[in-house]
């Protein structure tokens, strides 16, 4: 039974590392350090927009890439986010729509 608990522990930690790795090393965007920890939604949105527009590796539009990375963080990497930071990131989604005219 000790072996089983080790496997479960290893599996969940590798999932955490996977989402952290995607956030840090996205093939589509080069993100500013700590962008998802900032408390200003406009600043977060502006940074994501700059990163998406500067990227030559993204597959979709700049808006799609920026929104996708933000949603990914909220849904996966940010699963344990404090409610206050989750609200900030949700407002950043609204700001992204404004910045891109959507």
What does the model show?
The chain is mostly helical and 102 residues long. Helix content is 69%, strand content 0%. Helix 2 crosses helix 3 and helix 3 (62-77) runs antiparallel to helix 4 (83-99).
Task: Put the structure in a nutshell.
By secondary structure, the protein is mainly alpha-helical.
Which terms summarize this structure?
102 residues, mainly alpha, 0% strand, 4 helices
Structural class assignment: mainly alpha
The overall pLDDT, averaged over residues, is: 81
Characterize the biggest β-sheet: none
Q: Could you list the spans in which at least 5 consecutive residues all have pLDDT below 50?
A: 4-10
Number of strands: 0
- Individual helix count: 4
What percent of the residues sit in helical stretches (DSSP H or I)? Answer: 55-70%
Distance between the termini: 53 Å
One letter per element, helices H and strands E, the order comes to HHHH
């Amino acid at each position: 039974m000790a072996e089983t608990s080790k496997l479960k522990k290893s599996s969940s930690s590798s999932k955490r590392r996977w989402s952290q790795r995607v956030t840090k090393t996205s093939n589509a965007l080069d993100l500013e350090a700590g962008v998802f920890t900032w408390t200003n939604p406009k600043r977060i949105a502006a940074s994501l927009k700059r990163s998406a527009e500067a990227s030559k590796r993204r597959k979709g539009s700049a808006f799609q890439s920026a929104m996708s990375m933000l949603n990914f963080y909220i849904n996966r990497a940010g699963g344990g986010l404090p409610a206050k930071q989750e609200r900030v990131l949700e407002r950043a989604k609204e700001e992204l729509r404004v910045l891109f005219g959507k």
